[in-house]
Amino acid sequence: MNIVFMGTPDFAVPSLKMLLENNYPVKAVVTQPDRPKGRKRVLTAPPVKEVALAHGLPVLQPERIRAAEAVGQIRDLEPDLIVTAAYGQIVPKSLLELPRHGCINVHASLLPKYRGGAPIQHAILRGEKVTGVTIMYMAEGLDTGDMISRVEVPIEDEDTAGTLFDKLSLAGADLLKRTLPDLLAGRIQAVPQDHGQATQAPNIRREDERIDWSRPAAELYNQIRGLNPMPGAFTTWNGEVLKIWASRKPVSDVQKKQSAAAPGTILQALPEGIEVATGQGSLWLTVIQPAGKKAMEVAQVLRGTQLLPGTVLGE
C-alpha cells in the first residue's frame, strides 16, 4: 500500500510523524514551496519538508497542486490513500478520485463549524469553549466532505491560538492513529455534514487584526489571544502601530462599573498592566510592542515611553 502525505505547517508534523513511527508506508510527501521568512526574508523550508527529508522521503513542492504536472507526479506514485493536514491548497477532483481508500483530511475544528484556513484562530475569536479535530473524506468544496471521526478539545480561558494549535495538532495525530485501522479495513461509515450548520473560518485579514475599542472587553480579550502568536492584534499610538500580545481576562460587566471615559482611553498605567476603557468594561494590557521594538511586559515599556492615563489609543 502506498500513502502520500500532504501538509505544510507545524500542525501537520505530528500526523506525519505518527505515520512514520507506526510504519505506515509513506511513499512521498507533498508540501508548499519554500518561502521567504522573517525580516531578512530567508528562504525557509516548511516544517513538514524538514521532517520528510530527515526520514529520507521524496518531497514534491508544486506551486499549484492543480497543475497537470503536479497531478501527474502524484498519479505516478500510485497512492492507495492520500492523507492531508493543513496542506494549504484545494486538492483537485482528479486527485480526490485517485486512491482506492480515498483522500482524508485532518481538520482543526468540529465540522461543519469553522470550515476554512484559520479554524483555530476563529474558534478563539468567537469565544468558543470547545473545539476539536475532525477527520473527513475530502470533497471538491472547502472542508465539505463526509466526516469519518472527531475528537473534542476544550478551549481554556488562557489559551492562545499558539497553545491551542499545539493541542489540536497532537489530538489530530492521535485521532488519525485510532482511525486508520478501521478505515483501511473498510469498517468506516462516514457521516455527511449538515451544511445548514456550517460556519466559515477564512484566513485572517489585516482588518481582523485592528482593535476596535468600542467593542466589549471580553471580545477584545479573545481577539488578542486568538491572534497570538501570529499575526497579532494591534492598535495605534502617536500615529504608529502598537501591537498587543497579551491581556488579562476582564472581570464580568456585572462586577465592574463602566468607565465614563471614551473607548481606547488609558485609565491606569501601572507596572502590572495598562487599563484601557472599552465599549463595555475595561481591559488590562500586559504584553505590548511599540513600533520598532520587541514585545515586552508593560513594566519594561513604561520605563521608556509616555503611555499616560488620558492617552487615547487607536485614534
TrEMBL record:
Record's function text: Attaches a formyl group to the free amino group of methionyl-tRNA(fMet). The formyl group appears to play a dual role in the initiator identity of N-formylmethionyl-tRNA by promoting its recognition by IF2 and preventing the misappropriation of this tRNA by the elongation apparatus.
Residues binding (6S)-5,6,7,8-tetrahydrofolate: S109, L110, L111, P112
Record domain Formyl transferase N-terminal: where: 1-178
Record InterPro entries: Fmt (IPR005794), Formyl_trans_C (IPR005793), Formyl_transf_N (IPR002376), Formyl_transf_N_sf (IPR036477), Formyl_transferase-like_C_sf (IPR011034), GART_AS (IPR001555), Met-tRNA-FMT_C (IPR044135), Met-tRNA-FMT_N (IPR041711)
Record Pfam families: Formyl_trans_C (PF02911), Formyl_trans_N (PF00551)
Protein name: Methionyl-tRNA formyltransferase
Gene3D superfamilies assigned to the protein according to its UniProt record, in alphabetical order: 3.40.50.12230
Record flagged with keyword Transferase: yes
Family designation: Belongs to the Fmt family.
Residue span, Formyl transferase C-terminal domain: 203-305
Top EC group: transferase
Superkingdom: Bacteria
EC number of this enzyme: 2.1.2.9
GO molecular function ontology, one term from the record: methionyl-tRNA formyltransferase activity
Catalytic activity: L-methionyl-tRNA(fMet) + (6R)-10-formyltetrahydrofolate = N-formyl-L-methionyl-tRNA(fMet) + (6S)-5,6,7,8-tetrahydrofolate + H(+)
Keyword annotations: Protein biosynthesis, Transferase
